[in-house]
Amino acid sequence: MTTKRPPTLLEKMGLNTPMALALHLPSRYEDETVLSTIEEVIALSKFNAMQTQGVVIRNQVLYRPRRQMLVTIEDDTASLQLRFLNFYPSQQKQMAVGTHIRVRGEVRDGHLGYEMVHPAVRAVTPDAPLSVSLTPVYPASAGVSQTVIRKAVNQALKDPSLSESLAEFLPPKLIAEVSAEYDWPQLQEAITFLHQPPAQVDTQALMERTHPAWRRVQFEELLAQQISLKRAHATRRQRRAPSFTKKASGVEQGLLEAIPFELTKAQRRVWAEIGQDLSQAFPMNRLLQGDVGSGKTVIAALACARAIDHGYQAAIMAPTEILAEQHYLKMKEWFEPLGITVAWLSGSLKAKEKRFAQAIIEGGQAQLIIGTHALIQDKVSFAKLGMAVIDEQHRFGVRQRLEIQQRVGSELFYCHQMMMSATPIPRTLAMTYYADLDVSVIDELPPGRKPITTKVVKAARRDEVIAGLQDWLAKGLQAYWVCPLIEESEVLQLQTAEASFEQLTLALPNFKVGLVHGRLKSEEKAAVMAAFKANEIQLLVATTVIEVGVDVPNAALMVIEHAERFGYAQIHQLRGRVGRGSADSVCILMYAEPLSLAARERLQTLRETTDGFVIAERDLSLRGPGELLGAKQSGDAMLRFVDLQRDAWLIELAQEAAERLLAEHRDLVERHLERWLGSRIEFLKA
């Protein structure tokens, strides 16, 4: 019996074929084509990595203030110290006194003179030749050195099978038309160039990924993605779904008559778009965007009501228990008077309650089902699900969004699906990741909603903030105080929810202060929130569990502690908890110094605008698409070589080319998808 060989570290990274290695392109480059004297490096190297060499004249290990190795090298012009805070015995031997070494790094002015900290080091002979091309630096995982990856890539580039794998099979006319202005190289030439760029290359274009070789690769990858999305779009239209048209009387009409407000013009427009989708005989796949408080929930309720009117079940899934519970309470309030059974399913239910909920869902007695991820567990089986609403869809991983789509479909029918998000999707993201998603936007707030004033305040003025809070509560208004952590962390040294709760309770003896955080049991959380809603608690100290779904119109002030620790979307969501009543609303972003440049820019943007689209674009530029999409949870980076903001103009070229390929060259489509996406195609359907 042969034992199976364990995978190598490279194979664990997915680098198990010449093609995979060829497409493992460098993340950056180092210039080892130029050698400078130590004197030149000291004069020119500040903030620039440079290369020099010399003989080791001293090598010592010090133990104070911490264990470190100091190595001194010299040439005919000067000497230079190398400092290593982490090192191995093998490195001590490599840099023994008398050895000639070549080093590359940035020079800084240290306590003992000019030094390089953790430079790249190689033992060489004094006349060792220099590299003739820039040195690629590859994405790597723990334990895999750059030397191992470079060697494997160079071998792969010589493999005869690569010529076939990277063959030009896209119609020459199409490539010529797309790249006419840009002079892109052929694909294999582009990839070889990116692994081994010559010394005289335009280094800036290479580093910024705007070089024609990068453009050819980016276009090919975007083309594969756009083909996949357009194909998913066409496939969905071939699937059968129940057609839901408006009924003159029933649950939908009853709901419209029962809700105590008129729909805004934007809500009516969006509901008409969704109603049109629901009347089709193929499944709806729509994203409903709207700022916090714009009234997305009532639209979701109407979509569920229409499905129920046709004898189908509807489900609403939310990422957190507190948000799901808010939906459940609201839906019970709206639907139960209309004779509809609303079921609740979450991970925290007792086993008996869970079994009961699962039984009435499977038996069809539950017409509207609200829950968390528990709705897509194996034991949940719907009797006849026709409408699925996924709230804050970016908080679910791609696999989870796929799962609800696939679980609810039968051989005959797929259910209609609607995602909701208060974090707008930037246009470039919508074009690349949501091509099979129709988007509706509620772009106005309900009447009476007042704009929120945002103030940015140093943590040193905390006492002033608390004094202002006292005056605020004395007017009969309520407030939130949001903290980023539950308990003390030695590393972050942040004020915590418990510490703030104790301090504010002492500082505000005439008012009731409540505390809610993620470690409270569900019923304890619900009790605190109910007391806050009833104004039995005037100040609610909370962690980010209140980020979504909490609606207390009398709470018009929010203080966010350590605001520099929060992201754009989180603060935008939190801030949306105020501004829901008739009082002027204020959000105070309290920050600790020193502030990083990114945090300063983030707080400044949030102070200047409450426009979710502006905030989303800034968020995209800061974090990239993976986190905004929830794609990181899938474990697969969707676009490896494209920056959606820098390369936005390429998206339209790829869209046009994808349409032409699908219309005129369907035989080439599969080959192109397999080359660029392989097993990741499924994720693009989510």
UniProtKB/TrEMBL annotation:
PROSITE patterns named among the record's database cross-references: HELICASE_ATP_BIND_1, HELICASE_CTER
Give me any GO biological process, just one: DNA repair
Which residue range or ranges hold the Helicase ATP-binding domain? 277-442
For this UniProt record, give its keywords in alphabetical order, as a comma-separated list.
Answer: ATP-binding, DNA damage, DNA recombination, DNA repair, DNA-binding, Helicase, Hydrolase, Isomerase, Nucleotide-binding
- The protein's superkingdom reads Bacteria
Q: What is its EC number?
A: 5.6.2.4
Q: Which Pfam families match?
A: DEAD (PF00270), Helicase_C (PF00271), RecG_dom3_C (PF19833), RecG_wedge (PF17191)
Domain Helicase C-terminal as annotated: residue spans: 468-621
**Main role?**
Plays a critical role in recombination and DNA repair. Helps process Holliday junction intermediates to mature products by catalyzing branch migration. Has replication fork regression activity, unwinds stalled or blocked replication forks to make a HJ that can be resolved. Has a DNA unwinding activity characteristic of a DNA helicase with 3'-5' polarity.
Q: What class of enzyme is it?
A: isomerase
Question: Species name for this entry?
Answer: Polynucleobacter meluiroseus
Family annotation (PANTHER family): ATP-DEPENDENT DNA HELICASE HOMOLOG RECG, CHLOROPLASTIC
> Does the entry feature the keyword Nucleotide-binding, yes or no?
yes
- Hydrolase as UniProt keyword: yes
* Catalysed reactions, semicolon-separated: Couples ATP hydrolysis with the unwinding of duplex DNA by translocating in the 3'-5' direction; ATP + H2O = ADP + phosphate + H(+)
Q: What is the name attached to this protein's record? A: ATP-dependent DNA helicase RecG
Checking SMART domains in the record gives: DEXDc, HELICc
Give a GO molecular function annotation for the protein.
ATP hydrolysis activity
Q: Which family does it belong to?
A: Belongs to the helicase family. RecG subfamily.
